[in-house]
Design a protein that fits this description.
elongated; about 15% helix
């Protein structure tokens, strides 16, 4: 498993130095499209055109709490940098691919259909000493180290698709005041999943002439895998081979929107919204499915040789080796099908017209789920502020965010008609101290 986890760590870092909210800055633009509907389904009623066509959208973000751009440029070994200090490692990689979509307005109603694929790979609260022993054993220098944690460490990856059906309605329209509500029902297509959880780990890592072993160890383990990620989750191609599986789950987004309209019917003084997104779950069902909880116990005078995991490339192989060692006891039987929860999140935002074409928007995203749960897709807290110059067919903005792991980041974005491109972190990335980066682009157009 060392080979496998080391490859995962390297891939995660390569991507993570690639923001925390998809389409940062664009999703509060004055040109409302299906990207905005993804932030709040009530925004569908605000699209300017009678018909809205989305051709594509792509957003990739990554963040971590350890390695910055200046570290990458140094001569330090990457794994040494990642597992430095004492704080647990947190890394999040999230790619979102928005496929074709269509929306239309009719009197007080608006409707839309959209498609999207999600690919995620995460390290969650990984202990730096345990992580280094597994991923970088060749340079593990400590002769003996004792670890005692009361939290769950996870290596997690998932890919899935969704098709969303949105309905929004104008609830109140009095003068310049407009209140709308909306909902999106999503049919989910689980693709692949892999999770390795190590909860309440207590044990000693012993190094003797390059041989690493675990002694006097207790922990609760979870092995879960489905689809292509059951055999290998260190190769990027395994994530994209089966993004859309068979339909086997549902999700829902709910939202309300308030708009204080300006004298110009195409503009507003204030646009504000609240949404709760990703309520729901999906069930992974595949011929190579497994989800099992174990108790790991290595008693006095016993040891587990960590070097035997050097050539392991999948969770299934690691699980088989641990079972053969005799140190694992099942606490829950294998599940042929298992359920995974979506990353439910509360979002608040407001966009204010300060003067003429100058706008400032603020956004706050707060996760409503626990990333420590083995059956939970992760999310993270973020707060952002975006000043923007907005004209009818042209916008430019600079989005600044404070994230849960990487801290302050700043970027730039541009929209020309329906084409957009941007990054929520390119400005801070240029300072060489950023611990995250992102990029997004896409195209949509409206028909009167």
């Amino acid at each position: 498993m060392k080979k496998s986890l080391s490859a995962i760590v390297t891939a995660l870092c390569a991507l993570s130095l690639s923001a925390q909210e998809h389409y940062s800055g664009l999703n509060t633009s004055i040109r409302t499209g299906l990207i905005h509907t993804g932030l709040n389904p009530a925004e569908a009623i605000n699209q300017r055109s009678a018909y809205e066509v989305q051709l594509f959208g792509f957003s990739l973000y990554g963040t971590n709490n350890k390695v910055s751009f200046s570290d990458i440029d140094s001569d330090g070994d990457f794994e040494d940098l990642l597992f430095s200090g004492t704080d647990p490692v947190n890394m999040r990689i999230d790619a979102q691919i928005n496929g074709p979509g269509f929306g239309f307005r009719t009197e007080k109603w608006a409707f839309a259909i959209s498609s999207r694929a999600t690919i995620k790979a995460d390290l969650v609260d990984v202990d730096v000493r345990l992580g280094e022993a597994i991923a970088n054993s060749e340079t593990f220098a400590m002769a003996q180290t004792f670890i005692d944690n009361n939290f769950n460490q996870r290596v997690n990856a998932v890919s899935y698709g969704e098709i969303g059906f949105t309905a929004a309605r104008n609830l109140l329209n009095i003068g310049a005041h407009k209140l709308s509500g909306g909902a999106t029902v999503k049919v989910l297509f689980p693709g692949s999943y892999a999770n390795f959880g190590v909860d309440a780990f207590s044990g000693t890592i012993v190094q003797n002439a390059g041989q690493l072993s675990l002694q006097n160890t207790n922990a609760a383990l979870n092995f879960a895998y489905s689809g292509n990620l059951a055999d290998d989750f260190s190769e990027a191609s395994e994530y994209t081979k089966s993004v859309f599986g068979k339909p086997n789950g549902f999700g829902i987004d709910l939202g309300v929107n308030y708009r204080f309209q300006s004298a110009d019917s195409d503009r507003y003084v204030l646009n504000a919204g609240l949404s709760v997104r990703n309520i729901g779950s999906m069930t992974f069902s595949d011929s190579n499915n497994a989800s099992t909880n174990y108790s790991l116990e290595i008693g006095p005078g016993e040891s587990l040789n960590l070097n035997q995991f050097d050539e392991v490339e999948s969770l299934r192989e690691a699980e088989d080796i641990l079972l053969a060692s005799g140190f694992l006891d099942r606490t829950q039987n294998n599940a042929s099908d298992f359920k995974v929860k979506l990353p439910t999140v509360l979002t608040l935002y407001a966009d204010y017209n300060v003067y003429r074409s100058f706008y400032v928007s603020a956004l706050y995203k707060h996760p409503l789920t626990d990333d420590a749960a083995n059956n939970q897709i992760t999310n993270q807290r973020v707060i952002s502020l975006t000043p923007r110059l907005s004209f009818n067919h042209f916008e430019v903005w600079s989005s600044w965010s404070d994230g849960e792991f990487a801290g302050l980041t700043g970027g730039l974005g541009l929209r020309v008609y329906g084409f957009f491109i941007g990054s929520g972190s390119v400005l801070t990335a240029l300072t060489s101290d950023a611990k995250q980066a992102d990029v997004y682009l896409g195209y949509s157009f409206g028909l009167r």
